[in-house]
């Protein structure tokens, strides 16, 4: 097997941050010896999340077994996911913002046609629905647990309690037409064909689209983590993975 050096488009602060958390985890579990140091383990986890490198490729690159890579990656993801903010903490942060943007995204997964609960008719593919709350400058404030792709955005938002939490805190929220009828503080554009809308309604929809474009850029930032472009893991591991990436994104902004 051929091995070559590679690079990850992340700063060294991500590596130091994760390495510190792994050192704390090893002390808590009483680990005495590992094949890799905490810094090297952190590098394995970041390569998997950012570049989407498979376990086999990482095992060859770091000269360890595939099972060891699996344990290291799962441990690193769980450590990061535990640091992700809860919905209540995110709403508390959102109270200091002028408004927030709510949007849903479908994370593609590796499934066969028989797995109907994960098939999204809107996107014509299998995936997991994740709700994302973004601040006015395009920073992700919170990401929800993953639900099957058949769940629509407004249903997912209600299941997670996002709409009620924002309404209770009095936080104005902008969303797309998929959240029509959400109520509370959620603002959606006018529905209907453009020719059937009044001039004022068209102007409102244009202004609404400009605001929501900020949330779309945040989604693009999330998809920069290549692992999320095609998830081949168990669906039970997707929520910790999303929350781990959220923690790393928040660390970048902090």
Molecular structure report:
The chain is α/β, with parallel strands linked by helices and 254 residues long. It has 2 domains: 1-83 and 234-254; 87-223, no CATH class. The protein has 9 helices and 7 strands, in the order H-H-H-H-H-E-E-E-E-E-H-H-E-E-H-H. It has helices at 12-29, 38-51, 55-62, 66-81, 87-94, 153-160, 162-169, 199-223, 238-253; strands at residues 100-108, 119-120, 125-134, 140-143, 147-148, 173-174, 186-187. Strands 1, 2, 3, 4, 5, 6 and 7 form a 7-stranded mixed β-sheet that branches. Strand 3 and strand 4 (140-143) form a beta hairpin. Helix 1 (12-29) packs across helix 4 (66-81), helix 3 (55-62) crosses helix 4 and helix 4 (66-81) crosses helix 9. It is elongated. The model has no long low-confidence stretch (mean pLDDT 91).
Give a quick set of tags describing it.
single chain, 254 residues, alpha/beta, seven-stranded mixed beta sheet, 7 strands, 48% helix, 12% strand, elongated
Q: Quick summary of this structure?
A:
The protein is of the alpha/beta class and 254 residues long.
Shape: elongated
Described by strand count, sense and barrel closure, the largest sheet is: 7 strands, mixed
- Specify the number of helices: 9
Structural class call reads: alpha/beta
Beta-strand content? 5-15%
Number of self-contained structural domains = 2
Please state the CA-atom Rg, rounded to the nearest Å: 20 Å
Contiguous uncertain segments of 5+ residues: none
Distance between the termini: 40 Å
| N-to-C SSE string, H for helix and E for strand | HHHHHEEEEEHHEEHH
By DSSP, the count of extended strands is: 7
Mean pLDDT rating = 91
């Amino acid at each position: 097997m051929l091995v070559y050096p590679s690079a990850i488009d992340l700063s060294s602060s991500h590596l130091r941050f994760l390495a510190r958390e792994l050192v704390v985890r090893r002390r808590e579990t009483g680990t005495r010896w590992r094949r890799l140091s905490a810094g090297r383990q952190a590098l394995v986890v970041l390569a998997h999340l950012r570049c989407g490198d498979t376990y086999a490729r990482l095992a060859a690159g770091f000269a360890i077994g595939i099972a060891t890579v699996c344990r290291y990656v799962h441990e690193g993801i769980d450590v990061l996911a535990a640091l992700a903010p809860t919905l209540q903490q995110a709403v508390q942060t959102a109270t200091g913002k002028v408004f927030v943007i709510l949007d849903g995204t479908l994370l593609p997964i590796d499934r066969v046609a028989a797995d109907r609960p994960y098939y999204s008719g809107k996107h014509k593919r299998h995936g997991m629905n994740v709700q994302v709350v973004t601040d006015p400058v395009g920073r992700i404030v919170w990401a929800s647990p993953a639900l099957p792709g058949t769940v629509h955005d407004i249903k997912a938002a209600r299941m997670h309690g996002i709409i009620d939490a924002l309404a209770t805190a009095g936080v104005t929220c902008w969303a797309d037409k998929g959240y029509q009828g959400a109520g509370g503080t959620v603002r959606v554009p006018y529905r209907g064909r453009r020719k059937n809308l009044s001039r004022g309604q068209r102007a409102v929809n244009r202004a609404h689209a400009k605001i929501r474009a900020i949330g779309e850029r945040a989604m693009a930032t999330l998809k920069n983590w290549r692992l999320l472009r095609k998830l081949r893991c168990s669906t039970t591991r997707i929520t910790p993975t999303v929350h781990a990436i959220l923690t790393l994104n928040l660390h970048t902004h902090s």
